[in-house]
Description:
The structure is a homodimer. Chain A is α+β, with helices and mostly antiparallel strands. Among the domains of chain A are: about 5-75, Orthogonal Bundle (Arc Repressor Mutant, subunit A); about 155-230, Roll (SH3 type barrels). The first copy, chain A, has helices at about 5-10, 15-25, 40-45, 50-60, 75-100, 110-115, 120-130, 175-185, 220, and strands spanning about 65-70, 70-75, 155, 165-170, 195-200, 205-210, 215, 225-230. In chain A, the strands form 2 sheets. In chain A, strands 3-8-4-5-6-7 form a 6-stranded antiparallel sheet. A two-stranded antiparallel ribbon of chain A has the order 1-2. In chain A, helix 2 crosses helix 5 (about 75-100) and helix 5 crosses helix 6 (about 110-115). Chain A is globular and about 55 Å long. Residues about 1-10 of chain A have low confidence and may be disordered. The interface of A and B includes residues 102, 122 and 130 of A. Chain A binds a DNA duplex through helix 4.
Amino acid sequence: MSNKNVFLKKYFLMTRSEENYLKTIFHLGGGDAKSITTNAIAEQMETKPSSVTDMAKKLSEKGLVDYVRYQGVSLTDVGVKTALSIIRKHRLWEVFLVKKLDFTWDEVHEVAEQLEHIKSEKLIDKLDELLEFPKHDPHGDPIPTKDGKFQERDEKLLSEMPINSQGVCVGVKDSSVPFLKFLDKNKIALGNTIKVLDKEDFDNSLRIQMDGKEMRISHQIAANLYVKKND
Amino acid sequence: MSNKNVFLKKYFLMTRSEENYLKTIFHLGGGDAKSITTNAIAEQMETKPSSVTDMAKKLSEKGLVDYVRYQGVSLTDVGVKTALSIIRKHRLWEVFLVKKLDFTWDEVHEVAEQLEHIKSEKLIDKLDELLEFPKHDPHGDPIPTKDGKFQERDEKLLSEMPINSQGVCVGVKDSSVPFLKFLDKNKIALGNTIKVLDKEDFDNSLRIQMDGKEMRISHQIAANLYVKKND
DNA sequence: ATCTATTTTTAGATTTGTCTAAATTTAATT
DNA sequence: AATTAAATTTAGACAAATCTAAAAATAGAT
């Protein structure tokens, strides 16, 4: 192997496992220099803290995280960029699965978890183009641009909307299969306009109007729906 | 882990490495009960014979190959079916890359080598549908059906065509990047009609007519182009 | 039929990513 | 400040997939 390839191997080629750790650390908030504990990572990834420690050392040596023993890890700038590129791939593949292959939004995650590790810059650029540069994935999560920029949305949780305000449903906070299936069953979909009619003090449930119909939803549901407020 | 999953793990979940071995054995001809030597597999996969021996034992335990020490391996029926499903995935992804993402035929192999290992039956069925059930990949190789059937074509090598016969170019035997680039440069593409005008005894080169133009091609080129003969 | 060259396998080591159990450090409480 | 509970790391082990070097089996040639 040439010197050049040794360089590439050490600094750019990432294993699937390394990529999964970076993604998890990012999602746990370790991008803002916040330090994430090994325990938190282990719990999220359903692995053991000792395994996380090992990987933390490895990622630290590669310059992808800052790691201080007993203090946890945070992503470096390179680490954030790398995490964003994996998240970009994951979300673009999710859009592909829904738009081109008729997957439902509760089916895409598992397959995208595999597809996100495919290595080909051209593949992802062309996929982006085929999908006409989508800004959000099927759950409403923003798709980072090629150079790692997010467009943050002016959105809030439905549970935080004042009475009589209304907005468009733009995303879900919880994208677990049961929650998504629940939304389907109740005909709650992204794009729907929702108006908050009333709040019940007792259990924080909401009475809402959606597509002309009235319904009652629990606080737990409302706290997992993002709404873009119509001013 | 439940008993059911133990069963699934042992008999159906294949590692990437196992899948690559099965594919190689199939391509070396080990599907017709022919026994393939460990050396041949090692050479093809650029690995060591001792590694092949280890994997042969593993695949044999899983019932995917028949393995006799010092005699080589051949695929069982299950092994053939599994190999075909991987080849099916590889070739469908190649078609996708060319038809939907504008890849050239010399760029697809490397990416398809990764994509072929994605596990999702629905994904591949839907991809097949999106591509309108293609029968051949961009190099003219047949795509096995879902139930593992090939449609063999009535094709022969251009080098074996008699003088004055003509046919349509339907595939390449060698699908290496240099050969494909050479064909592009010389405007030789699948679908072109080729007529054999003359053969040179000295070096076995051919004088051909293609799209009205005459050209001379070496034996090595002609021996790597499949032609469907017009009767 | 024996010998020899080649092929193939075995044995033991390595790397990656994981685990368990024990040891260490930190943080909370008195 | 000392003690203790919780979090974290270390040490040692394991499985998968590979390698090298040595041993064993096969096949070809005399």
